Amino acid sequence: MRCVEPATRLRGRVRVPGDKSASHRAVLLAALAEGSSHVTNLSPGEDVGRTMGIVTALGARVESSPAGALVVGPSRLAASPTALECGNSGTTMRLVAGMAASIPGTHRLVGDASLSQRPMDRVAIPLREMGARVEGQGERCTAPLVVEAPGALAAIDYAVPVPSAQVKSAILLAGLGAEGPTTVTEAVRTRATTETMLAAAGVRVETEARGAGRRVRVWPGRPRPHDWSVPGDPSQAAFFVVLAAVHPDAHIEIPGLADEPERLGFLAVLERMGADLVREHHDGVLDVVARSSTLLATTVDAAEIPSVDEVPALVVAAAAARGVSAFRDVGELRIKESDRFRGSLELAEALGCRAWSEGDDLFIEGRDGARFADFTLDAALDHRRVMAAAVAAVCGRGGCIAGDDTVATSFPSFFDELGGLT
Ligand code: S3P
Fold it and tell me: Do residues 159 and 287 share a domain?
């Protein structure tokens, strides 16, 4: 349990870790490539550590240092006799399932108690359509998961039923070992990290916008070794942007973020609420400066923030705003590292707000600038719930958070960065 004190003034510059999504993909693509790839600014979180452990078990050599990692892919990856440990990381499990579908042999993927409850049928269904054997537990095909590669995978044309970059990526990675071009269509554009990085590593990929969605086609092939420079993680920056906007005396700079439209919907939401933000785009990255603001309630549609990773941070903004904010169609929150749908209601109520739900919609009546109540909260071993609660505590009257160590999943230095601003 950690108790976080309120702060009277926040000033400074925050260095968020390397983007978690790009870090997982850099490690996987480097392991698939024959030869040496360097990754700089790799995410130091435990999740990416799991992906590194798994590629090592499959035969790659990984040397990590504080500056990043050197990954040496062998001429051929091979199934590991021991289980592939994904820990808390859904991205690891889903992407590795796709990659393993074309590595000969039988792969057993396991995870912690949280990951073992998360649905894997969303990747099992398309991978089976490609000819892989994928078996899990129960109706939703939860871990432990067994993936067995057939001789050759069939190329498929798949429409992803729920917008999910993890599902899209699992299919694209499997597609590298298919017999022809594999096509994935998504109704809402999710992060394009996999397709962009595959193309940078020399794989033939074509993408085409289709209304609000996108069609991605990948041809079979092997990525080339590549030196990856991972930009800052916008989803981690979201906590500090909200911190600055909600706190009454704050000026925070967050430089070097991945400048990708599918990741930055939260900025548009905050701007709509009246947040005082300055964005500067340069050299392919985004710098954000955020200051204390008077916030008004808004309606957020899930399609604006695909993957809903930034909702826990936005809940704190909604709790401070004037009026009732609505988060529409955010049922995906229920199947993240914890039930973030329930967690969002719990946090808003703990801060002294009225909060309720109707179906998959969440509503929060903000405190119109009145200080948050102090609170004690269990973050349910969910890194993003810890960070959201900590931000609220600093802005309000403080708060105690059980399960705070879980920030190590994605942002081990989170509390140091927070402390550095006071
Ligand atoms: C991720 C995709 C998202 C997101 C997760 C990272 C990725 O999950 O929530 O933190 O790296 O592809 P979904 O694909 O389940 O939306």
Answer: no
